[in-house]
Design goal:
The chain has 2 domains: about 1-190, Glycosyltransferase (Alpha/alpha barrel); about 215-435, Farnesyl Diphosphate Synthase, CATH 1.10.600. It has helices at about 1-20, 25-35, 45-55, 65-75, 105-115, 120-135, 145-155, 165-175, 180-210, 215-220, 225-235, 245-265, 270-280, 290-310, 320-345, 350-360, 365-370, 380-385, 390-410; strands at about 90, 95-100. By secondary structure, the chain is mainly α. InterPro entries: Isoprenoid_synthase_dom_sf, Terpene_cyclase-like_1_C, Terpene_cyclase_plant_C1, Terpene_synth_N, Terpene_synth_N_sf, Terpene_synthase-like, Terpene_synthase_metal-bd, Terpenoid_cyclase/PrenylTrfase.
C-alpha cells in the first residue's frame, strides 16, 4: 500500500507540473482545490506553491465568476494580497446583487467572500446576497451532492471547516463526480487509510500514557476524555509529519481538562489556594500540605511536563519554560474564579469577566503548546510571539470563552435541568457562569 501510494504521488506530481503550464486557469485552480479538499495538498507543497505563484500574476478580468471566485479564494487563503475589486465586474447595479449563472457560481462566490477583511464592502454584500440566493436555490439544484454542499456552506463556510473531519465523505463525493481523476481518487483513498493507521498508532501511545497516570482509579471526578482531546488535535494539524506535535498537544489539553475539573468540582477554596501555590513553585517539596489526591495530581502534572521535555531535542528544550509559565497563569485564573464563586462576586462588566475567564479558557497555553512538537517549523520567535498575546490570540480566547458561556447557558436553562438556576450572564445579578460545567 505504501509503495503504491508513492507511485501515485509521483504521477500526480507530474500531472501538477504539466498543468502549471499546459492547462487552463480554471483547470489548474480546480486541481489544487480538489487536492486540498481531499487532504492531499501536504504531499505536493512545492508544486502547489509554484502554481499559486504563477496564478498570482494572472489577469482574471473576463473570466467567469466561478473561476475568479476560486482564484481569489485560493490565493487569499495562502496569504497572497489579492484585491476584492475583481468582483466589481459581476455586480448587478440595478438588482443590487451579483450576476451568477449557476448555483455553483453562487457557492464559489460565497466561499471566497467568507475570506473578507474589515472594510471590504463588496465582499460583505456578496455574503449577504449569496446566502439568501443559495437558500432559495438549494432545493432546485437537481444534484443531491451540490445541495448538500450548499447546506454545509451555509451552516459553516468552507474556510472555517476542518478538512480532515470531512475527508472521508469528500472522497466519496469526489468519486461520484464526472470529472474525477482516477489517479487522484486512488491516491486519496490510499492516503486516507495510511493516515488513519498512523492516527491509530498515535492513539495507542496516548492511551497508554493516560492509563499509566492511573487517574480513573484515584480521581472519580476527572473526565476521561483523552480520545476526544486527540480528535480535536487532529483538526489542528492532520499532516503525518506532525505526529509528535499531536501527541504532545493532546497530553497538554488532557492535563488542562484535569486541572479544570480539579478547580471546578473537587477542590475547596482553601485547597485550591494551596494547589495554586504549589503549581507556582513548580517544586514537589512544597506539596506536603496538600490533600493526597491533589498531591497526586500535582505529581502527575510534573511527570507529564518532564516526559514531554524528554521527547525534545537538546536545542528544543528552551520551549518548556513557556509552557510552564502559561500553566501557572492558567491556574491563577482558575483560582481567581474560585474566589469569586466563594465570595458570591459577580463581575461588574463583561470586560472584567473576560480579563479572567478568557485566560481560564486555556487558549494561551494551548496556542503555545501547539508549537512545541513542530520541530523547525516553529522557532523561538514563534514562542515569543504567542507570549506577547497578539490580537489574534486575544480574539481566539474571547471567541472560545463566549462560545463556551453560551453553550453552558443553553444547558443551564433547559427545563428540568439541574443547571436551570438563572441567567449565565457576566453582568447578571445571579450566579457566576464559571460555576457551570465546561463544554
Amino acid at each position: 500500500m505504501v509503495h503504491r501510494a508513492e507511485q501515485l504521488k509521483e504521477e500526480v506530481a507530474a500531472k501538477l507540473v504539466a498543468a502549471s503550464s499546459a492547462c487552463s486557469l480554471h483547470r489548474r485552480i480546480h486541481l489544487i482545490h480538489v487536492l486540498e479538499r481531499l487532504c492531499l495538498d501536504h504531499l505536493f507543497e512545492d508544486e502547489i506553491s509554484d502554481m499559486l505563484a504563477r496564478m498570482n500574476d494572472v489577469d482574471v478580468s473576463g473570466c467567469d465568476l466561478q473561476t475568479v471566485a476560486m482564484w481569489f479564494y485560493l490565493l487569499r487563503k495562502h496569504g497572497y494580497s489579492v484585491s476584492s475589486d475583481v468582483f466589481a465586474e459581476f455586480r448587478d447595479e440595478q438588482g443590487g446583487g451579483f450576476t451568477a449563472n449557476s448555483a455553483r457560481d453562487l457557492l464559489s462566490l460565497h466561499c471566497a467572500a467568507c475570506l473578507a477583511t474589515r472594510g471590504e464592502t463588496i465582499l460583505d454584500e456578496a455574503i449577504s446576497f449569496t446566502a439568501k440566493s443559495l437558500k432559495s436555490t438549494a432545493p432546485y439544484t437537481g444534484a443531491a451532492s451540490l445541495a448538500c454542499e450548499i447546506k454545509r456552506a451555509l451552516e459553516i463556510p468552507l474556510p472555517r471547516r476542518v478538512r480532515i473531519y470531512e475527508a472521508k465523505s469528500r472522497i466519496a463525493e469526489y468519486g461520484r463526480e464526472a470529472e474525477a481523476d482516477e489517479l487522484v481518487m486512488e491516491l486519496a483513498k490510499l492516503n486516507y487509510n495510511l493516515v488513519q493507521l498512523q492516527y491509530q498508532q498515535e492513539l495507542k501511545i496516548i492511551t497508554r500514557w493516560w492509563n499509566g497516570l492511573e487517574l480513573q482509579s484515584r480521581l472519580s471526578f476527572a473526565r476521561d476524555r483523552v480520545v476526544e482531546c486527540y480528535f480535536w488535535i487532529v483538526g489542528v494539524y492532520f499532516e503525518p509529519s506532525y505526529s509528535r506535535a499531536r501527541i504532545i498537544l493532546t497530553k497538554v489539553i488532557a492535563i488542562v481538562s484535569l486541572l479544570d475539573d480539579t478547580y471546578d468540582v473537587y477542590g475547596t477554596p482553601q485547597e485550591c489556594e494551596l494547589f495554586t501555590e504549589c503549581i507556582e513553585s513548580w517544586d514537589p517539596a512544597v506539596a506536603g500540605g496538600l490533600p493526597e489526591n491533589m498531591k497526586f495530581i500535582f505529581g502527575k502534572i510534573l511527570d507529564t511536563y518532564q516526559s514531554i521535555e524528554e521527547e525534545l531535542a537538546p536545542e528544543e528544550k528552551y520551549r518548556m519554560p513557556y509552557i510552564k509559565n502559561f500553566i501557572i497563569d492558567l491556574v491563577r485564573a482558575y483560582n481567581k474564579e474560585v474566589r469569586w464563586r466563594e465570595q458570591g462576586y459577580v463581575p461588574a462588566t463583561v470586560e472584567e469577566h473576560l480579563q479572567v475567564s478568557a485566560r481560564s479558557g486555556a487558549c494561551h497555553l494551548l496556542s503555545c503548546a501547539s508549537f512545541v512538537g513542530m520541530g523547525d517549523v516553529a522557532g523561538e520567535e514563534a514562542f515569543e510571539w504567542v507570549c506577547s498575546v497578539p490580537k489574534l490570540v486575544q480574539a481566539l480566547c474571547i471567541i472560545l470563552r463566549l462560545s463556551d458561556d453560551l453553550k453552558s447557558y443553553e444547558r443551564w436553562r433547559l427545563p428540568g435541568s439541574i443547571y436551570n438556576q438563572g441567567t449565565a450572564c457576566a453582568c447578571s445579578e445571579r450566579k457566576w457562569p464559571r460555576m457551570l460545567p465546561r463544554q
